[in-house]
What we know:
Elements: H1 4-24, H2 33-52, E1 58-63, E2 66-69, E3 72-76, H3 82-90, E4 93-98, H4 104-112, H5 120-126, E5 132-136, H6 182-200, H7 204-215, H8 219-268, E6 274-276, E7 282-285, H9 287-293, H10 297-300, E8 316-319, E9 334-337, H11 340-348, E10 350-354, E11 360-365, H12 370-408, H13 414-444, E12 452-454, H14 456-473, E13 477-482, E14 489-491, H15 493-510, E15 516-523, E16 531-538, H16 570-579, E17 584-589, E18 595-602, H17 612-615, H18 617-621, H19 626-631
Parallel strand pairs: 13-15
Antiparallel strand pairs: 1-2, 1-4, 2-3, 4-5, 6-7, 8-9, 10-11, 12-14, 15-16, 16-18, 17-18
Helix pairs in contact: 1-2, 2-4, 7-8, 12-13, 14-15, 15-16
Amino acid sequence: MTEPSENKVLWFNFLKAFTRALVQINLYKPDHPQVKQALEEGQALLGQISDTLNGEDFSLTMDNDKLLVNGVQLLTADKLPNSLKNLFARFRIQTISFSRGVTGEDLLALCQVQAFKGEAKEFLKERGIDRVKLNEAIYTKVGGAQPEGGGGTGTGQGAGAGSGGAGSGAEGPGAEGAGPGGGQAGGTAAADERMAEKIAEQGLETALSTVVARVTSDPAEQQRVIELLSAKIKQEIEASVNKALEGIRLEKKKVENDMVRTESVMTSMAEGVVVVDKDGKILMMNPQAEAISGKPLAELSGKRIVDLSQIENQVVSLAKEIRPENKADISPEIQKSGPAELADTVKKATAIIQNEEGKIVGSVSVPTDAVKLKQVEQLQQDFIATMTHELRSPLTSIKAALEILNREAAKEDSSHGILNTAIRNTERLNSIITDILDFSKLQSGKLVFHQENAAAEEIAAEAVESMKAWANSKGVILSVRSAQGVPHVYADKRRTVQVLINLISNSIKFTPQGGTIEVSTDAGQDSLDGFTFFSVKDSGCGIKKEDQAKVFEKFVQVASGEKVGGTGLGLAITKAMVVMQSGRITIESEPGRGATFRVAMPVYKGQGEQPVFEQAAEVKQEEKPWWRKLLGL
Length: 633
């Protein structure tokens, strides 16, 4: 057995580790190193505590304003961290008991209870936690109801009627004294009840006089007792009010300190000050803020602060709710405006420092330069464009040479297979280069579409013909089917062929040898009669329902089968090309049953053939082009 003082050191250390875990689980994921360290430390300390208790349970009890550990007072409530007090108060927990063998997973579940909206016991039960037990505080209202038959109020007539009854009005032999003391007890209870009703209707001073009058009949003594009782009541009320106010004062001071710290941190990050009204309109600006905006107060006064973001090198973040009144809860939502790339750069350049309770106490920043950012972006775009063009030229020559050698080689020659493999790899490299180049054009807004009257069946046939050699080399059957009378489409024929090639290429990657891929065209029905549909259906591994929304994201490859190579840009570019021609693309799939991509392109109805981007001046004026949003740029 350890000494009591050593026990308390262990208890204190466990409380510190447990409180740290409670706070950090709200800030980080369960597998974060700091969370894991706190849980491991708590588990180790519980093991040591269990050894000192010879295997008995270790319990934390909140009794009014005191924290008891195994029945021994350890701390008062005002010295406990808010996170621990909130855990007890929110779920009405009176005692938390830890049995021998508590693990870090058990402690993690107890910490995660904070975010649970139901009963804490149910949360632990669902997770099979039986080494941590919670006892809730139960409050009962003690009533003054007297059990039925409890004598004193009943009336009895005749000898011995109703044992224990008052016997009022009783006549006849044996009535007198029936039920010893019954009449006296009944009368006293009735009088007490009338007295209670009378006092309930009176003020405090009158009620005191009524009560004291029953104690003594001497007026002087009555006055003296009333004064003593009044002073005592006043003293008790003042003590209770002061005790309640002390907690409120502490909470108020804590909130004020948090605000001071946060404001100090934020003001230290900037010299400029802008004052706005409840609608976000500018009222005042100091010279530093005018310098940042590049315009004087006289020009900006009365304009909304978010309008400043129209200047290319500025980012504005404004609370959605900025009225001074605090009668209702304030929304945590933020209005943001300005170039998305710059906003993301500024955000990534600043880190917030928090204390163990999650309060902001500081920040760390690195300088950002909008001009340098644009220069880097331009260098990146120029490099990608140059690199892809430089790679494509020699790759085309290599592929042509390999195809000539392949045609001249005998089929039974072992070099025939090697050449086929080399050709497939050149096609794969060419596909990757094309994806990167198209992505670069989309990112820079230079991808132009020339929509015209085009036959859907010709587009489908051309795409299939381009991919047939690759499909045959993988042992996949690729076919095309066109329905009769399919309307022509209003589309950029070359880009639409590329859309289908990307979809067929994706199907070939995920379709095993001996599988099938069918490309078909058909006319839209009913509400979709303004579209012509291209379908690419394969018998590959398929895609899970929850993953289907991800397939069109950039740098993402999702499939139920084996992982394959590629940039992860093909389907993202494909969707962008479809949508930029006023089309739409969908997917239907189940794991193990293949996938069907459906592309809807607008029917040709005599539309003009002007390039999309030459006539869409409004698009360039948008805060962020829709195709950038589509690709997450």
